[in-house]
TrEMBL record:
<dbReference type="GO" id="GO:0046872">
    <property type="term" value="F:metal ion binding"/>
</dbReference>
<keyword id="KW-0408">Iron</keyword>
<dbReference type="GO" id="GO:0005737">
    <property type="term" value="C:cytoplasm"/>
</dbReference>
<feature type="domain" description="Radical SAM core">
    <location>
        <begin position="24"/>
        <end position="267"/>
    </location>
</feature>
<dbReference type="Pfam" id="PF04055">
    <property type="entry name" value="Radical_SAM"/>
</dbReference>
<dbReference type="GO" id="GO:0004109">
    <property type="term" value="F:coproporphyrinogen oxidase activity"/>
</dbReference>
<keyword id="KW-0004">4Fe-4S</keyword>
<dbReference type="GO" id="GO:0051539">
    <property type="term" value="F:4 iron, 4 sulfur cluster binding"/>
</dbReference>
<keyword id="KW-0411">Iron-sulfur</keyword>
<keyword id="KW-0479">Metal-binding</keyword>
<dbReference type="InterPro" id="IPR013785">
    <property type="entry name" value="Aldolase_TIM"/>
</dbReference>
<keyword id="KW-0349">Heme</keyword>
<dbReference type="GO" id="GO:0006779">
    <property type="term" value="P:porphyrin-containing compound biosynthetic process"/>
</dbReference>
<keyword id="KW-0963">Cytoplasm</keyword>
<dbReference type="InterPro" id="IPR004559">
    <property type="entry name" value="HemW-like"/>
</dbReference>
<keyword id="KW-0143">Chaperone</keyword>
<dbReference type="InterPro" id="IPR058240">
    <property type="entry name" value="rSAM_sf"/>
</dbReference>
Amino acid sequence: MPSALPLADPAPADGALPASVVEGAAERDFGVYLHVPFCRVRCGYCDFNTYTGDELRGAKREDYADEAAREVRLGGRVLEAAGLPPRAARTVFFGGGTPTLLPASDLVRMLDAVRGTWGLESGAEITTEANPDSVDERYLATLAEAGFTRVSFGMQSAVPSTLATLERTHDPARIPLVVRWAREAGLDCSLDLIYGSPGETLDEWRTSLEAAIAEQPDHLSAYALIVEDGTKLARQIRRGEVPEPDDDLHAEMYELADRMLADAGYDWYEVSNWSRGREHRSRHNLAYWRGADWWGVGPGAHSHVGGVRWWNVKHPAAYAQRIAAGESPAAGRETLDAATQHLERVLLEVRLADGLDLSALAPGARRAVAGLIADGLVEPGPALRGTLVLTLRGRLLADGVVRELLEAEESAADAGASLL
C-alpha cells in the first residue's frame, strides 16, 4: 500500500487558511491538480496513492467525478474566504493512478468544475496522464473538444521484458497509435520513460529511447527507477529475486538519454525532463518547482498556497465520507517557515536549466560555488552572470550539489555565531 501521510498540524474541518496566505498572492501563479487514485493493476515499483478495484472498500469509482467537483467548489469558497484575489487557473493537471480509467465525460465534468469555480487563463495548459491501453481515438478527441491541451502517456519502455518487470500492461506497439490519435485531436504529447529497471541493459534502454524519439513527441520525461520501501519490488530485491539497481548503470543511461535527446532536438529544462523548445515545457510542473500556488483535489493530494501546505486523507472511502459531510478532506497541514522555504527553493531551482539566482544564497554558499565550478558540477558562464546552472555531471550529482550549498550556508552561519 502507499506510504503513510506525513505528521503535521491538524487541518480545520472547514479548510480555512490563515491570513498570511494573501501576502504576495497576486504575483503567484495558481494551478489545480486533480488526483484520480484508480488503477487496473498495481505495478510492483509504484508507491503512489492508488487503488485497484478490490482495495476501494466501499468507495465507488462512478461517484468520484462528482466528489472531486465538490472539493473544487469547496476550494473556491476557502480561497475567497481567505481574502485571496481572484486568480484563474494557469494550469490544470489530472494525475494518478490512471485518470483515463474514468470515462472521458468524468474528466470533462471535473474540468468544468475548475472552469466554473476559478476560471481558466487564456491559453491555460490542461494535461491528463494516460496509460496507452486506456484511451482510444474518440476518448482523446472528447478531451480536446472540452479544452484539454496536452496528454502524457506512460510509455515507460519499448522492450516487452522490461515492461513485464515493471508489470505494465500495454503493448509497446500501441504507442505510435495513441500518439497519432493525440496529434489528430490537436493535443500536445509527452512520453514518460523509466530507466534502470532490474535486468535492463544499456542497449535495451537505447531501444526505448529510439522508439520514443521516433514518435517525435513534444516533451519527454526520463526517470530513474527508485525502489520505494513497502513496494512489491523492494520485497523482491530483499529476497534476491531480482537484482538491485546499479547506480553506475543509471548514470550511463542518463548520459545516453541526454545525448540522444539533444541530438534529436530536445533541450533539458529540468533534470529529468526535456522538450522541443520552451513552449513545450510542462508549465504545471514548473509551477511546483518554482513555488507557485496550487489546489490539489482528491485522496492524498497535496496543496500549497502562500507557504501553507496541506494534504488530504488517503483512502477514497475516507475522502468520500468527508466530502459527503461537507467537510474539508485535509488530513494535516504545515506552515513553512522561512528556512524551510529557502531549503525547498534551493533544492528545486538548482534542478532547472534556468537555474538558481545566486542572490538567493547566503554568502557562505555563494563562496562555495567556485569549488563546484572547479569540480565540473556548475557551468562557469551562467555563474559569472549570477545564475547557478548544473553541468551534465552536476545533474547526475544534483543532490550532492544542494547538500554542499546548504552545508556551506550552515557552516558560515555557525562561524558567524561563534564570533558574537
